[in-house]
Design a protein that fits this description.
79 residues, alpha/beta, 3-stranded parallel beta sheet
């Protein structure tokens, strides 16, 4: 697989309902070559977020606590 041309980092905190709408929209794009990284920023329903890895080119990272928005993005970029 070729490297992604674009990385989309989503920092998720108690938003899984919105997250899946966002993932559906991203999967419907005609643009290719992107990778999605979801950082669980201490979500109350982590089991819901883990399901996100079933989407194509999507990685799930569990942070274990609320790192804040900036640190959550940094965690995603490190992956």
């Amino acid at each position: 697989m070729s490297p992604a041309r674009c990385m989309i980092v989503i920092v998720a905190y108690n938003c899984w309902r919105h997250l899946f709408l966002c993932l559906e929209a991203l999967q419907a794009q005609t643009v290719s070559g992107f990778r999605i990284v979801i950082v669980d920023n201490g979500d109350a329903n982590p089991g819901q977020l883990e399901r996100a890895e079933s989407y194509q080119n999507t990685t799930y990272i569990k942070s274990g606590s609320n790192l804040g928005f900036a640190a959550g993005n940094n965690r995603g970029l490190d992956k």
